[in-house]
Amino acid sequence: MRPQWLFTPGPVPMSEDTRQILGAQTPYFRTPEFSQVVLECERLLVALVGAPSGSRAVFLTASGTAAMEAGVINLLGSTDSALVVNGGSFGQRFCDICRCHGIPHRELRLSGSDPVPYPGTGARALLLNGHETSTGRCYDLDESGAYCRRHGMLHLVDAISLFVTDELNMASQAIDVLVLSSHKGLALAPGLAMVVLAPTALAVLKERVPSFYLDFHPYLNDGIRGQTPFTPAVGILLALLQRLRQIHAEGVSVHIDKARALAAHFRAGIRGLPLRLHASPAPNAMTALERTDGGDARDLVVALKQRHGLVLTPNGGALAARVFRVSHMGEQRHDRLAALLVALHAYFNNPR
Ligand SMILES: *Cc1c(COP(=O)(O)O)cnc(C)c1O
């Protein structure tokens, strides 16, 4: 394969340290040494997302969707009701999870930058994606948190494509359940999903969960001694520890500022091209763009990959022909972004 540079919203470019750890022999993990790894990962993760004291994290060997599903089914059942902010394919996924498990839900369907039409009456829980990665739109988590507190609702937030690039704080945003995964802002390999549970969520976990693998109880119990009930993604946890230590040492704000600068660099650089932001407010994590020259977004994505080895992401579904996405997550670099800008300008000078 010719050299490529990823601007995809997961996987994202990984650091040299991460690639070294992931390339090493996997150690045996039922050991006191590995327990220390898991315990430190949990301690650092809970601190970095601003979780209130007494919060816990569980580590699932799965992609992020499993953490979304686990969060929902450990807190909600067929006698509860959920309110789902559905502004794209990840919001739709929360609806599909509720439907699959027979959880009554009301959907707040919106497109692009529509304001969220929070209803006057609440539900048991609000489910939303802090950044709806299919449209590149961010929701105001202070607003959703305040709404949940006002109505006595659980606030379940999928922050998979928000963490480390954008402001996130479980305590100040009144988040009870936070869903994360390894291969977006955390810039690791896919395969590790995480759920952080505030004491307000731990206190109301369902006794019976309609899944063996995703039931939080054994994860929480075994996690006390730094273990998981089933084989964990050992290598990714080792890489996570290195990454969390680094983020902790530098400060999350350094990573947020870096992503913000990359996003600003990119958005300034496309001025004058027949492109516009698809939705707003846009996160630092990613820029989703629409072609305004009538051309097909998929042609552009194919051309940049073939001509320059630069990998952008087309959209799926109804937006496939119109929208494409450029991620600013992970070990993204200004020189690569500059190369992308040159390539985009060249493309629009000569689209064929
Ligand atoms: C990537 C992503 C997920 C998880 O998708 P997987 O394919 O299961 O990794 C969930 N929510 C959001 C907002 C995402 O960007």
TrEMBL record:
GO molecular function: transaminase activity
Sites where the protein binds substrate: R325
Domain of life: Bacteria
InterPro entries on file: Aminotrans_V_dom, PyrdxlP-dep_Trfase, PyrdxlP-dep_Trfase_major, PyrdxlP-dep_Trfase_small, SP_NH2Trfase/AEP_transaminase
Cofactors, names only: pyridoxal 5'-phosphate
Post-translational modification N6-(pyridoxal phosphate)lysine, affected residues: K184
Coiled-coil segments on the chain, per record: none
Residues covered by the Aminotransferase class V domain: 122-311
Keywords: Aminotransferase, Pyridoxal phosphate, Pyruvate, Transferase
Gene3D superfamilies xrefs: Aspartate Aminotransferase, domain 1, Type I PLP-dependent aspartate aminotransferase-like (Major domain)
SUPFAM superfamilies: PLP-dependent transferases
Name of the protein in question: Serine-pyruvate aminotransferase/archaeal aspartate aminotransferase
Annotated organism of origin: Thiorhodovibrio frisius
